[in-house]
Amino acid sequence: MTSLSNTTVISQFSALESLQMPQITKFKIGLCQLSVTSDKNMNLAHARNSIEVAAKHGATLVVLPEMWNCPYSTDYFEKFAEDFDYKDSSPSFSMLSEVALGNRITIVGGSMPERRKNGQLYNTCCVFGPDGNLKAKHSKVHLFDVYLPGDISFKESDNFASGDQPTIVNTDVGCIGIGICHDIRFPELAMLYRARGAHLICYPGAFNMSTGEALWELEQRARQLYVATCSPSRDSIGSYMIWGHSTVVGPSGKIIATSGHEETVVIAEINYSMIQQQREIVPLEKQRREVYRFVDVYEQKP
Ligand SMILES: NC(=O)CCC(=O)C(=O)O
Question: Which residues form the CN hydrolase domain (predicted)?
Answer without folding.
Answer: 27-272
